[in-house]
Write a structure and sequence with these properties.
This protein has about 120 residues and is α/β, with parallel strands linked by helices. It has a single domain, classed as Rossmann fold (3-Layer(aba) Sandwich), CATH 3.40.50.2300. Helices cover about 50% and strands about 20% of the residues. A 5-stranded parallel sheet has the order 2-1-3-4-5, sandwiched between helices. Strand 3, helix 3 and strand 4 form a beta-alpha-beta unit. Helix 2 packs parallel to helix 3. The longest helix is centred in the N-terminal third of the chain and has 13 residues. It is globular.
Amino acid sequence: MRILLVDDEQELVSTICERLRLRGIEAEWATSSKDALKQTAIKDFDVAVLDIKMPRIGGFELKKSLQACCPHMKFIFMTGYGSEQDFKTIIEEFGQDNYLFKPVDIEELITKIALVCA
């Protein structure tokens, strides 16, 4: 299983990526939607973990682009903004029920990855 983490906070995604690798999960990271699209052009990923609010292209827009080129890819969203109820409303609108709030708990992320890949 290969995971792509996308967030404009480099320290966050690099740390999460390293923690996943320590648990035997192949993971890579990008700090922009543009970089994420470049990576998916050269590698296959099973799951993308996307930050909702990023400069230029946010997680929801990135999901649409990734689905077009990688229809098999699964998605998990993460955010540090808004209330949980507001976030659930947004997620329901996009048909996505896998989400995390920052700071991300690594065990919860691994559980969500397993759920979307089941």
